Automatic annotation (TrEMBL):
<dbReference type="InterPro" id="IPR044500">
    <property type="entry name" value="AKR5G"/>
</dbReference>
<keyword id="KW-0560">Oxidoreductase</keyword>
<feature type="binding site">
    <location>
        <position position="116"/>
    </location>
    <ligand>
        <name>substrate</name>
    </ligand>
</feature>
<dbReference type="InterPro" id="IPR018170">
    <property type="entry name" value="Aldo/ket_reductase_CS"/>
</dbReference>
<feature type="active site" description="Proton donor">
    <location>
        <position position="54"/>
    </location>
</feature>
<dbReference type="InterPro" id="IPR023210">
    <property type="entry name" value="NADP_OxRdtase_dom"/>
</dbReference>
<protein>
    <submittedName>
        <fullName>Aldo/keto reductase</fullName>
    </submittedName>
</protein>
<dbReference type="Pfam" id="PF00248">
    <property type="entry name" value="Aldo_ket_red"/>
</dbReference>
<dbReference type="GO" id="GO:0016491">
    <property type="term" value="F:oxidoreductase activity"/>
</dbReference>
<dbReference type="InterPro" id="IPR020471">
    <property type="entry name" value="AKR"/>
</dbReference>
<feature type="domain" description="NADP-dependent oxidoreductase">
    <location>
        <begin position="31"/>
        <end position="266"/>
    </location>
</feature>
<dbReference type="InterPro" id="IPR036812">
    <property type="entry name" value="NAD(P)_OxRdtase_dom_sf"/>
</dbReference>
<comment type="similarity">
    <text>Belongs to the aldo/keto reductase family.</text>
</comment>
<feature type="site" description="Lowers pKa of active site Tyr">
    <location>
        <position position="83"/>
    </location>
</feature>
Length: 280
């Protein structure tokens, strides 16, 4: 059982990654972003997830520098993730995109770098670039995002290095069982984005009943469900009290019956794009 906010999972290359972190999707550059990341670090979060397309890497970098100083920790205590965007997929362009992200963040290395979407005909060249970055010691772990089973199977045909992470939309309405099983069978750690379905599950009766049973909120129940399913999770918030509340999930454990009840809410329903049918 994951027992605290600093608990880690060991990726297949031996790198330890926190089970829980902060996502900053759609948080614009500015004080709100900087404060959110600093709140997270202050309250014990050690994993921060951004991406080139979020256009907030500079603010995240500023918050990291200020946050570690105020918290009295070091850069090595944090696990920082970014992602290469679709327009930069390709061998040389991905290498260049990595350096751009690193410069914006003001960091010497990333802990995890991901291919953001499986753009057909492009992700294999991008993966070769990630393998190069990894071999050169510029990033501690590499992975993919939004890859379905057939994308992973295709990638693994030619990959020298297996992805350490597959970050996908994952919540009680989209349990991605096929992807989850494939990743487990192949030593790829599954990670959830939009774990709270952008707030669409707050009034779901089954989740409300379970939350009342444990004297917890619906988001806390969902995030606990993620962890008990062996899924790394990165909820997004900019409010300090919510950042604290989201992480207050280590003092209870859902029963097997509750886990199955939540699993049964699956409807294969997405709030984000379909990885097999997206155009951006």
């Amino acid at each position: 059982m994951v027992k605290n906010l600093q608990d880690t999972t060991t990726l297949h290359n031996g790198v330890k990654m926190p089970w829980f972190g902060l996502g900053v999707f759609k948080v614009e550059e500015g004080p709100e972003l900087v404060n959110a990341v600093k709140y997270a670090i202050k309250h014990g979060y050690r994993s921060i997830d951004t991406a080139a397309i979020y256009q907030n890497e500079a603010g995240v970098g500023q918050a990291i520098r200020e946050g570690i100083e105020e918290a009295g920790i070091s850069r090595e205590d944090l696990f920082i993730t970014s992602k290469v965007w679709n327009s930069d997929l390709g061998y040389e362009s991905t290498l260049a995109a990595y350096e751009t992200s690193l410069n914006k963040l003001g960091l010497d290395y990333l802990d995890l770098y991901l291919i953001h979407w499986p753009v057909e005909g492009k992700y294999k060249d991008a993966w070769r670039a990630l393998e190069t970055l990894y071999k050169e010691g510029k990033v501690r772990a590499i992975g993919v995002s939004n890859f379905q089973v057939h994308h992973l199977e295709d990638l693994l045909k030619d990959a020298e290095i297996k992805p350490m992470i597959n970050q996908v939309e994952y919540h009680p309405r989209l349990t991605q069982l096929e992807v989850k099983t494939f990743c487990q069978d192949n030593g790829i750690q599954l990670e959830a984005w939009s774990p709270l379905m952008q707030g669409q599950l707050l009034d779901q009766p089954v989740l409300k009943d379970i939350a009342n049973k444990y004297n917890k909120t619906v988001p806390q129940v969902i995030l606990r469900w993620d962890l008990q399913n062996g899924v790394v999770t990165i909820p997004k918030s900019t409010k300090e009290h919510r950042i604290v509340e989201n992480a207050n999930i280590f003092d209870f454990e859902l029963t097997n019956e509750d886990m199955e009840l939540i699993n049964s809410l699956n409807q294969n329903l997405r709030v984000g794009p379909d990885p097999d049918n997206f155009d951006f």
